[in-house]
Structure formats: C-alpha cells, structure tokens
Amino acid sequence: VKIFATYNIKGGVGKTTAAVNLAYLSAADGNRTLLWDLDPQGAASFLFRIKPRVKGGGKALIRGTKALDDAIKGTDFDDLDLIPADFTYRNMDLLLGGADKKPTRRIAQLLRPLAAEYDHVFLDCPPSISLVSENVMHAADVLVVPLIPTTLSVRTLDQLTEFVAGFSGHRPQVCAFFSMVDRRKRLHLEIIKTLQAERADVAATPIPALSLIERMSVERAPITAFAPRSVAARAYRDLWTELTKDI
Amino acid sequence: MPGLRGFVLEALPGDEEDLFSAVLAVLGQSFTVATDPDARGGGERRRTWLDTFDWRLYRAGLMLQFEQARRGGRLLLSKTDGTPQAEQDVTSWPRRPPLDLPEGPVRDRIAVLISPRALLPIVRAVSTASVTRLLNADGKTVARLTADHITVTAPSRAATTAELAPRLAVAEVRGYPGPARKATALLAGLPGVAYASQDVFIAALTALGRHPADYSSSVAAEITAEMPAPVAVARLLLRLLDTLESNVDGVLRDIDTEFLHDLRVAVRRTRSAIKLLGVVLPDELAAHYKDEFKWLGDVTTPVRDLDVHLLGFDAVAGRLEAASPADLEPLRVFLAQRRVREFRRLATALRGPRVRAIADDWRKALLEIRDTGASRRRRPTAEALALSTTGRAFRRIAAQGGSITPESPPESLHDLRKRAKELRYLLEFFAPLHDPVAYRKVVGDLKQLQDCLGDFQDSEVQRDEIRTLADAMLAERTAPAATLLAMGEIAAKLARSQAEARDEFAARFARFAGPAGRERVRVLLEGRP
To answer: What was the ipTM of the complex prediction?
Structure first.
C-alpha cells in the first residue's frame, strides 16, 4: 500500500479538491483506494455525499474501540472507499496526545491492518501544524503539498521540507504542486517558472484556478468524474501521472 | 459482491417487464432509482459449467465454471453451496471436448478426482445484467439492484435452449447495510418475486429437463419385490440399454476411455442378465440377443484392451527396475497406432445397422414385456426370482471354489471368476430388494474375492498380450531390443503378481464361502440375522 497525504499549513489552497480528484483517478485506474477525511469540516465527505459522522467519533477510532475498518463507507465509484470526517476530529490532537507512548505514530499504526485491502490510501489533512499533521507526515509515503504561487507559500514549503528532513527513520517524499494558478497574474507565472527550475520536488503540472472546480460542491462529485474531459480534470490526470510515475 | 441477496421474478413469459417496473416502483417509494448502464457487473456475461460425464465434480460437492473473457477466460471452482475453492486464468479454450485443463490451481485441485475422465461442457449460459442504483436523499448510492436475464443452452448435438426466470440481486454498498436490508424487504413483499433457492447452474439444468448427477453407470433399476419377474427383468434390461446407449456418442467422439468402459459393463451385465434371468423372457428372444450382445461385447474388446495398456502405461514404465522407461516408448507408439486402427473398426460397427437393430428392436421387445408382463401365465415375483437365482449362484461358487487346490489348473480360477462376476451382477440387479446392511457385507466379501481372482487372470491375460504384442512388433520391425527386454521385465513382474494372487486365493475364498460367509449370505436371502 502507498499512502498519499495532502497537506498544507494554510487552508483554502485546494487540498481537499486535490485529495478527492487524485483518489478518484487512482480508483479509476483500478487501484483499490481509500480516502480518510481527517478534516473536521468534512469537505471531502460532503463531496462524496457521505454524512460526516463516525459512530463513537474520533475517540473510538483513535483509542481503537472501533476498528477503522468498520467506519469505511463505499463511495458511488468502484474501488473507492472513504472514512468520513467527524466533528469530534477537532479534538484529535488531544486524543492522539493521550493515546500511548508514540503519539506521533498512532495514525500510521491504525492504518496498518488495511494494508492488504487497499493499494492506495489518501489522507486529507486539516490545515495547521499539529499533532494530527505530524501523525500524517509519519504515516505518509508521499506528502502532496498544494502551493498558491506566492512568495510566502514558497517559504512554507521550505519549512515543511526542513521539518520532514529532521525525522528519524521513515521520511515521506515531499511533492509540491501549484494550485489555483491564475495565468493572467504575472507574479504567478514568474514564481512557477523560478521554482520549477530551482527545485526537484515541485511538480511540472499546475492546477489552474477555474470556476468549474468550484462547481464540485454543487455537483458533489470529483470533477474528474463529472467533467472528465475538462481542462481541470486533465490537469489532475497529468498531476496524478506525475505522482505515480515512480510507483 | 458483498451482501448479495438473490430473487427470481416468477412472471409468466412476456410479463417480466411489467413485473420489473413494479419492482422499480416499490423501490421508488424509499429510494431514488437510477439506471447505470456503465456499472461494473453490468453487460453480457458468458459462462460454461463443466463436469465429467459421470458428474465426478458434482458428486464430490464441487462445481466448475468457465467465465469467458474477450480472450481466454477464467475457471472458477466452488463448492456446490457457492464457496470459492480455486480459480485460474486460461488464455485459450478449445471449442470442443476433450477440454484439457492448463496447469494451475484448479487443475491441481481436480486432476486426480476426474482422472481418467475428460471435462465436458454441461450447460452454457449467456446473461445480460442491468444495474440500477438506489440513492438516498443526498443522492448517494446506498445499494445496487442487478437484474440478470439468462439464456441457457445444453451443448449437446441437438442444442436446446431455455430462458431462465430473470434474477434480481440487491448488493450492499460498504458501510450501508440498512438500505440493502430495506430494499430486500421491499422486494420480498412483492407478489411474483421469490427468493432464489437454486444456483444458476441447477436452475439451468432444470430448465433444460436435466438434473445434477443424472448419469450413473450403476444398475439402479426401479423394481419392487412384488413385481412380476418378467416386468422386473425387462425394467432392469431397459435400464442397462439406456446406459449403453447414453455412452455411444462419447465413445464415437472418443472423449475419454470411460465411455467405452461403461458401455462394455452395460453389455456384460446385459449378457449375464439374459443368461441368469432369461428364463422369464420368451425363449427365442433370449437366444437371439444372447448372440447379439456377445457380438457387441467382442467388437469393443480390442480398443478396451489397448486403452487398459495405455492408461496403465506410465505406472508400468515407472516400476521398471532393469530397463528404463524410455525403452518402452516404441511400445507406446505401437499401441497408439493400433488403437487408431481398432478404433476405426469399432466406430464402423457402432454406427452400423446391427447396433441400431439391437437398440431399436431390443427396446421394443422389452417395453412390451414391461407393459404387458403382468398378465403372463408364468409369473413368479421379482423377489422369488432374486432369491432362487442368487442362492443358486452362491452355492455354485461355494462348490466350484471348494474343489480348487494349489494343483488345480489356472482355468478353474478363471471360471470361478466368471461365476463370481455373475453373482455380483445378480446382487446389483436386485439390490433394491435387499437389506442394505446385509447387502454391503456380502458384496464386501465378494469384492475381495473378485479382486484376487481378477489380479490372477488379468496378470495372465496381460502377459499373453505382451507376448503377442512383442511378436507383432517384431514382425513389423518396430521393436528395438531394449523395448523387447523391457517388455520381458514387465512379463516377469506380471508372472510374480499372478503367483501372489494365487497364494492369496485360499484365504479370500474361505472368508467368502466359509461358515461366516455362508451365514452372511443366509441373512441376506432369508432376512433374519
């Protein structure tokens, strides 16, 4: 199993949109895929029309009184399952903190029994830097980081890379991509050009800012499913191809 | 699919669409229904169920299905309750039998079980499935309904086709057990919708007028103790004729060796029945068909003898000590060539007028006796006939076997073997009239004796055949010296096993015909322990 996590310390950068579309493309390729919506806002769950509720809440999952397996819901798409968000996930830091001796490894540990059942797992992480995000970074094989092309967000990527480099043992591969790119903005294009030239961990495929992507919340489906031939869907497809070329 | 619950639409032909609309309407009360033409599990599916002619897989509690893909397909072995056992991909599949399985898990699981029989297509099914999604108030798919329209065909020569009642199944979406339960309950309450109690395979057989394990080489005639003897004997002989005829096609298509074997057993049983029970048949009828069945038996002998050599070839070659298995290869080639020639003769005979006359006229005569025999003048009951003939056959063996000493010529044992076989057939013919426990005991003892007598005679016959084959191979200059030497070693081994069988005879015979054995036969015939 290969674990992908979409993460950014900032919110509203296209994290959930990426998780939902990439997970859909993974499943469409025939990979048994699971998406865990860790964000208490439950946007990913909403997009798959699944109620953001887990029986017993985050507490039962983190403590292990409810198996992760029992929380899984089938989406409308073949080979794509989802563990819904729950409002109690907002307290997940506390729950993880009280878990056991290795509070930063708990999510990795919980996912282990599912390894045989799925080829790809996606973790859609809430924004912030917290025990949850640290857990996710330890669990992930690939950290998929959406970046809005601003100087500030580039600094964030540096910080993240440094933080991950400090891990002992397993380190996820960091793979950033530009998100919500406005091709009319000169600054966007310049930053993309410079950064793609300078850094190997930035994907060549940018995801444009398109109103069709915002329509996802109306359609309540991945754009790759309801408009597979659109520019946006093709961009996600290219990004997915780039992310998996080494797998 | 998880949580599949099966139903059949018990609509009259033509009304299925109305009934399906009713199904959608009732589901529409609780869900939004949406057809899904691209759904996985939708579209056309081609399946073939396979088994041997004598249902060896089914009798072992197994079913084998071949699911055709665009190229090749997949073999699925399951228990008869549907539990998967093994599966295997196949890249290509022959259009007609024999269907040799390529190596893989399915073959590993069944090869020994079916050997030496070949797999045959029993039923073919083409199904077209349509999938309907059941959505909740959020527009989320919470269950799926699959409707399957299945056409089945019997792949025999006169291919017959039948439509099965459409099948419905509700599949659960993971994490949503409630809606699937709800949909199932809604369907269950609908008139014309019934739980599917039969597997598709069994339903297909039923629709084609067949049932599983509907061939067996055993006698199993439907006779009763009070039935007039001529009626019982006619029923018995008709049953044997059915078995004989049902094997002819498989022999002619040379699908596997056991068709001929079963055909020959039916002929031998018929001959024994005419000989031992023919007194209740019209004299001229028995006399005529005695000769006809002798001819039919003889016609089939050369191919069967060669089959026996070829079937046991690898085992015999593997047991060679002085010679190497490779030395024997010219013999295999010789046997195979001979078989081609002999098979042609056999096929000509089986397709000829004499066989057709036996099949038609014999059946006609037997049917007449079966249907009018009750009013005949001489009419012992089936039971009386069974008791008198079985008792007499046993006494004959006891007397004949009792006079055999270590000095007696081999012919005396060969003759005893024939008598033992006759007794065995009599027991089998009248098996429905006997107490099963007493029957099993007597047959058990008899079988031990027969095996010993069989080893004794077969060793001798095969040794003679090896000698004849060696002569023929020499005459045709197809035998290298190494092959002849290897054949000599086989002959020596046969002589040894014949001697062993002879040593064992006294003990086996004593068990069968000694005081304990006699008592078991008395209990069988008189019914009191």
So the answer is: 0.89
